[in-house]
Amino acid sequence: MAEVVDVIEDSPPAADRRPLPTREELRGHLESHLQGRNLAGLSLKGLRRELEQRLGLAEGGLDARREELKALAQAYLAAQAAPPASPAAPPAAAVGGGGPSPSEPPAKRQKSLLAAGGAAAAGGVAAPT
């Protein structure tokens, strides 16, 4: 029985454990963390780990909220990709036809936060991280 008591006494006190952030707190941290960053090489898993460090959580502390974090990240990307409402902007068809020029090769697919957001926006399913 003494072994069980030793294990319990070795457990970190409840005051050292941080509560999980609310959805709005998580959204605020995510947006401020991603603002101005190059997102091409950032995966959802990497983003979770960085937010865990930023929030003072143990590694894996946000794993249970993986889908919620993915949805928040995709919403952020969609908001960033949306063109600003401007009456002076010409339609995409007038600018360049909306597609890549014949001299440009198609972009490679990458397993990144941008790829996950693009797949969701196109109606596809992003690869899990």
Helix/strand layout:
Layout: H1 2-10, H2 23-34, H3 44-55, H4 66-81, H5 92-96, H6 113-121
Mean pLDDT: 73
Which percent band covers the strand fraction? under 5%
Low-pLDDT sequence parts: 119-129
Helix count from the secondary structure assignment: 6
Q: What's the multimeric state?
A: single chain
| Strand and helix order | HHHHHH
Span between N and C termini?
A: 42 Å
Notes on the structure:
With 129 residues, this protein is mainly alpha-helical. The chain is built from six helices and no strands. The longest helix is centred in the middle third of the chain and has 16 residues, at 66-81. The radius of gyration is 21 Å and the shape is globular.
List the main descriptive attributes of the protein structure presented here.
0% strand; 129 residues; disordered C terminus; mainly alpha
